[in-house]
Specification:
By secondary structure, the chain is of the alpha/beta class. The protein has helices at about 10-15, 20-25, 35-45, 55-65, 105, 120-125, 125-140, 145-165, 185, 200-215, and strands spanning about 5, 45-50, 75-80, 85-90, 95-100, 170-175. It is built from 10 helices and 6 strands.
């Protein structure tokens, strides 16, 4: 049986529509499958979802490259890009390089559970070091988003092109599509503030991906 591999951020992981998230718990009658599962079932493949809430482009690339030897001819690989202000940084508590989720600073609010452990002030306890990080990200990414998007797109497209040449069905999609599908905030009339997709959004996006596959659109 072939495998479908999924790499990306919270929109790949399925945030909002998984257990422990407010929407999932408060609206049980609406529960359904997330897009990665819908696509895997449509292709009759096993699903391997490596999506991580708050993931960064450098870490997504790392995940793809680490799993590269496991891909088999005929498998499917789906890669979703993410926002350039997310970077990797030494996580000294866990002694590894990890994604530093910067959304709490960008949107001036704390991250939702279960990502509280990755608040910037907990990730980097030293206030001076934290200030340097904020200044660096602000100076290097906020006014240069198009350059960063192009920088990572070139890398992603190179990987996707290579995979397709060796018989692995690879597809790239942009984080700019996040806003194109119905969000939890919209569907609950702001009862829950969560810009991730509701299940209807997952269904619609899965149709978009399946259409790309059927029409051989990389």
């Amino acid at each position: 049986m072939k495998t479908s591999w999924f790499f990306g951020d919270s929109f790949t992981h399925g945030d909002g529509c998984l257990p422990t998230f407010d929407f999932y718990e408060k609206y049980p009658s609406e529960r359904n499958k997330i897009w990665t599962t819908l696509v895997s079932e449509n292709l009759n493949t096993k699903e391997k979802n490596f999506g991580v809430g708050g993931n960064s482009n450098p870490y997504i690339l790392k995940q793809v490259l680490e799993n590269l030897p496991k891909f088999k001819k005929g498998d499917y690989v789906f890669i979703g890009s993410t926002y350039s202000y997310r970077i990797v940084y030494p996580n000294k508590k866990e002694n590894k390089i990890d994604t530093l989720i910067f959304d709490s600073v960008v949107f001036d609010k704390p991250l939702a559970a279960p990502y509280k452990k990755l608040y910037l002030d907990e990730f980097v306890p030293d206030i001076d070091e934290r200030g340097l990080i904020v200044d660096f990200i602000a100076a290097s990414t906020f006014d240069s988003e198009k350059m960063w998007d192009s920088y990572y797109k070139t890398q992603y497209k190179g990987i996707v092109s290579l995979l397709n040449k060796i018989g692995i069905n690879a597809y790239l999609w942009s984080h700019k599509l996040h806003r194109n599908y119905e969000s939890i905030t919209e569907s609950t009339n702001k009862d829950i503030i969560d810009n991730h997709w509701r299940w209807n959004g997952h269904q619609t996006f899965s149709n978009y991906i399946i259409d790309k596959i059927q029409n051989k659109l990389i």
